[in-house]
Queue: 3 jobs
Job 1
Amino acid sequence: TIHANTPSKPSKENIINQAFKFHLQGNISEAAKYYQNCINNGFNDYRVFSNYGIILNFQGKREEAEILLRKAIELKSDFADAHSNLGNTLRGLGKLEEAEIFQRKAIKLKPNLADAHYNLGNILKDLGKLQESEFAYRKAINLRPDFANAYNNLGAILSDLGKQEEAEIIYTKAIELKPTFNAALRNRWKLFFEQGK
């Protein structure tokens, strides 16, 4: 028998890969549509839940993001990135103690995950644990020496701890790495002003 040339239905993996492709290209609206389509079709892929959770968190839909990231962890309990992203989401929801737990779990699963150390530093700062926060930022910088945001946040912690000279050096490094880094530029000028320079 001769069959008509009909387009075949895209496979589950093709749909998921298309979602990833849109996400990597920065086409967030299309990526979100594809991730939602994957979930609607019952694709229990931890990467889909995690990536869509990240998008929702950035869109300010933190409660929805929390649900998806918890599902990603349920599907793959050793997925460090999902633990870290859930920690970020929980921080945004003001659940700082739980956020700290998930960041520490991410670090335990993947000790060299610089973002998790950085995120832990942010949470510890919010909790008022400045010396622990300083250590977390230093670890993030040790793992990723070009991590300008970590330098900037470390500078703020050092300034709060009364280590102004070191803070100035750290802010300068952040600006060297990212010359148009407005937050670091503002922080360094504020420090100069406070020191009367």
Job 2
Amino acid sequence: MSIQYLEKERIFMLNGKKSTYAFEIQESGAICNLFWGGRINDVIDLPTSEELIRHISTGPFSQVNIDDRQEYRSFGGKSVTDPALKVTFKDGTRNVFLNYVSHKIDKNTLSVTAKDPKYPIEVTLVYRLFEKFDIIERSAVIKNTGDEDFVIENAYSAKYYLPNIDKYRLTYFPGAYYHEFQKTQEIIKNGRRVVETRKGLSGNDAMPFFMIDDTYSEEEFGGVYFGTLIWSGNWKFIFERDQTDRIVITGGINDFDCDICLEGGKTYETPVLAAGYTNGGFGNVTRTLHRYEKEEIIHPSERERILPVIY
């Protein structure tokens, strides 16, 4: 099976042809990332929580918690990375702690539901695996399970954690009119690097897409992480490198001047963020996304139509 839940280990493994994405349910109920990268066939070869904690520890081991690698980290607690979710309840409370409730596997789709133990909020994380493309579509469905409204200050589509190595390089494509999609590469340094648009419509100034590699990848060689947001409005990607050299990626709808009032019983669904990993270099990212878009995104009636070229 491409999507597995290993009940004894409480680990989810999503395997593409040449890639693996894995996360686990902690004793606390937190849903935490374990791995994203090249294909791993056996759960025993995944890094353990203890190994990952040692990478992010800046003090005594006992004072560090794996919860800092949550799949959908909400605002609250000790984490200082950008939260995937931030809300304000009627009483002014802003902390949300999402604990695992249940999950469902339906063919190539995994849905994992978590909720806060005290406040009326429930979040379902949706993972849709396209095995042959090594791509996983991610989104989040936020539900107000109470009677009173609350305000969503930001709700990104997903968070990602990269394996710790010395250096990562970010590739993205800013531009302007008559100067579109200029390939730009830079080393991800300590702190936050934001790539975004606030114009209300994705366009030639920036495209919601990124590639990250270890600085050694080329057109036909090397491991590359990539992601694209399927959304035409304001968007934002945050690339954070902390003092332990850990890379955290947060992406989705831009939270600039954006509050959403969610009424009791209503739901809000984020746009899809499609991301993957390839060991075939930048060229394979291009070819993979072209095939994925043609087979899964474009309407069937348009797939074979020759499109006009506009000058």
Job 3
Amino acid sequence: GKSMADSIATELRTTRYAGCDWVNQLYHLGDIVSAACLAHDLGNPPFGHSGEKTISTFFSEGEGAYLRDRFSERQWSDFTNFEGNANALRTLTHRFNGRRPGGFAMTYSTLASIVKYPYSSDLAGEKGKFGFFLTEQDTFLRIARELELRQLDAPEGSLRFARHPLVYIVEAADDICYEVMDLEDAAKLKVLTSDEVIATLIGFFPEERVAQIQKTMARVDDPHEKISYLRSCVIGCLVESCARVFIDNERAILDGEFNGCLLDHIPDPERSAFQRLTALSWNKIYCAKDVVDIELAGNSIISFLLSKLVHAVVNPHLNYSRLLLNQVPRQYDVNAPDLYGRIQAVLDHVSAMTDVYALDLYRKLNGMSLPAV
């Protein structure tokens, strides 16, 4: 995603704005979106999007539901719509115990570039997408005012802003990277056949270009080499198309009136080919048995860890709670004076875990493994 975002930004700077006398002011555009691509997944919990769902449903329909009356509407919606994007902003900006003010101290432009859904959690809707927890609302407001992001209509007490223009580049680069690279990986892992992948990727090009591509592919016998070549052609094509959509819709994007993402607006055959690619990925990769088995295991692991840790911060006076909370890394404020802060600290801890760390802690707390004595 990092290199693709840089490529889209460079395409804009060297085409649309090449003749402008202020073009040098955009010299670091690629650095900003590259940094945003590296940072935007930092808030994702173990087991990816299924981990997000596990955390949110722990509170909405799981063991944590009994806590509903302990929180305000907005605090509760932060929990029941737990979102990796909002958590990324918190990870990057929150002053954790023992850390310096400002968190990672990133630029406002870089931070704004990762907020794909710039509104509060009470506006998350069916998809559960939003941009900042209540704890980071003031931080986001400061970013929005500094960058003059357009504030949109919202019910009283809620917040909604237009996206920063660079969000569109980061989002497109991320979607291109994961969708196309996942397809290539699926062929290597034999989840999809090489022929399926080649047919899907070649659908991005008009007939005249297909003949040229097939002639080049005929020079190698290894199907994975053919796919690697096709993948680079597809990425190049999508980078150019997304840059063109940005240029063609520049006014609407800068005014905060652009709808959808850049990939929704690319022309055919690229758009229909990308839709076929995402449908294939969903049906054959993301719903594959091995993937679902990992999601189910991840659900059990995260639910168990939340159960133990949330119970401990709700009942900190118990002996087991003290033992468990003493093991939590000190940057997470599990001793915060209010319960909202303590549960937020639990989510900070759990969401920062890797899959392997979460599994290891799950085994230890279940008595399934002991440290060597």
